[in-house]
Each structure stands twice: as C-alpha cells, then as structure tokens.
Write a structure and sequence with these properties.
67% helix
Length: 87
Amino acid sequence: MSLEEQFEAAAEAVKALTKRPSDEELLELYALFKQATVGDNNTSKPGMLDLKGKAKWEAWNKKKGISQEVAKQSYVDYVNQIITKYK
C-alpha cells in the first residue's frame, strides 16, 4: 500500500471514530492533514476573536518546514494511535 493510499485510508478512518478525540488531538490531526495536503501555512492569522480559527492556524503553523511526505506518514502514524484509543 502506497503512502498516499495509507493517508487516504487514515483520513477515512478518522471520520468513522465512535468517540470524539480531545481538542489537542483534533488540532494535531488538523495540522498534520493541512501540512500533508497544502504544505506550509501561507494564510494570514485569524483575528483575536476567532479563537477556534486561531488555534487551528497556530497548530498548522507549528508544522512549517515539514515535507508533505513526512507529514503524511506522521498523520498515518498518529491516526493509528488515535484509532486504538477511541475505537
């Protein structure tokens, strides 16, 4: 199975979780997914009142410099940890 196929399978597996991961885990999943699919964060930081948007932006921005391939592998590994915890 190629890394791309593993990545897509992991993304589908997250949608099928029966329990909701913690906010920190969700932010990590979001940041790794965005880094894997888009690359480095090149968007402007949301305003102070957009707390959710700001948290997501900061989580993604911390992944800056990680290649998309490494981010995909990290995402797959992290999803596998989450699945064992929340299935």
